[in-house]
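We were asked to recover a plausible sequence for a given structure. The inputs and outputs are reproduced exactly as logged, with field labels preserved.

PROBLEM: sequence recovery
POSITIONS: 331
GIVEN STRUCTURE:
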């Protein structure tokens, strides 16, 4: 085993909120010099650092600080998505990028199943009627036997596929590479086949990364291709959906409903009509955030830091040119 080397780690965190300075970092601090900074301190902290832990997934200052990153060798995102760290400079460099794959997969799949059941069983109306002390008998829907398209064939999409299939739904995947059989997603269609696939689907779940190919994939044309009884669940990225087109489709009754955990602008502005639509469930980007998630993120980073110090291969290495985690056998 190669001799362990020292490391200087910069932790970029928010001033407050979910991405404030991480706790439970004692094991990391025991093996590395750790510099905790918010965005306004990044330029001062990066010189001489070889590792950057981006704990704040809304950070936008990396491009401006990049010229002073003279020793940087590895950037780790404390999130599944990596769009905020894949700047052109990072992509063109030799810096390795990793993400926090594995922490959010099952929680997000549980969220999708919960939202699917909530919309099918009309739970929002039930809760509203309860607050009104109003007895309103209704019939609801089954999800068993319904068809679901899961856009995104990474670990989160796969976990979603397994959960929905276990609930009796027929699952089809949508991703970069088509294949006739997949253990988690049934048949996987190429992203280019989205328009052809939509008319047959009862549920459309977005768990895809945000790329040039997927940005705005659900627009007016895609929404028009969906059944008026279909519903949309988005746990991927807000810009996967053209939000104005979605609002128009929901308002016109061209779509039965939506459960949205991510938005183009976050927090979702109070002026957005999505807040008051009776067929929409809005949640504040929390589908993967379960009790203990921060500790899991720190544990994953510590494991990868140990690998880095020992000269071993890192986990969850991102293909920077494509923006997804490389897996064995992936093209």
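RECOVERED SEQUENCE:
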């Amino acid at each position: 085993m190669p001799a362990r080397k020292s490391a200087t780690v910069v932790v970029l965190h928010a001033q407050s909120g979910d991405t404030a300075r991480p706790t439970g970092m004692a094991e990391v601090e025991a093996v590395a010099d750790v510099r905790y900074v918010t965005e306004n301190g990044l330029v001062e902290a990066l010189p001489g650092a070889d590792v950057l832990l981006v704990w704040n997934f809304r950070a936008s200052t990396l491009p401006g600080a990049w010229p002073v990153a003279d020793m940087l060798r590895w950037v780790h995102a404390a999130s599944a998505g990596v769009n905020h760290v894949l700047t052109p400079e990072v992509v063109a460099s030799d810096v390795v990028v990793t993400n926090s794959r594995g922490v959010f997969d099952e929680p997000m799949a549980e969220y999708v199943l919960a939202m699917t059941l909530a919309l099918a069983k009309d739970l929002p109306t039930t809760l509203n009627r309860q607050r009104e002390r109003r007895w309103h008998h209704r019939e609801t829907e089954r999800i068993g036997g319904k068809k679901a398209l899961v856009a995104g064939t990474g670990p989160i999409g796969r976990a979603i596929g397994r959960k929905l299939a276990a609930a009796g739904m027929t699952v089809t995947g949508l991703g970069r590479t088509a294949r006739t059989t997949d253990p988690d997603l049934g048949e996987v269609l190429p992203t280019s086949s989205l328009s052809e696939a939509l008319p047959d689907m009862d549920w459309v779940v977005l768990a895809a990364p945000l790329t040039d190919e997927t940005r705005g994939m659900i627009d007016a044309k895609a929404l028009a291709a969906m059944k008026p009884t279909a519903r949309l669940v988005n746990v991927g990225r807000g810009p996967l959906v053209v939000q104005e087109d979605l609002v128009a489709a929901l308002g016109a009754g061209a779509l039965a409903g939506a459960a949205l955990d991510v938005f183009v602008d976050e927090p979702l502005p109070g002026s957005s009509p999505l807040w008051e639509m009776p067929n929409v469930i809005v949640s504040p980007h929390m589908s993967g955030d379960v009790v203990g998630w921060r500790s899991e993120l720190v544990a994953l980073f510590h494991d990868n830091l140990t690998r880095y110090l020992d000269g071993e291969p890192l986990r969850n290495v991102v293909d920077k040119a494509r923006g997804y985690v490389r897996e064995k056998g992936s093209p």
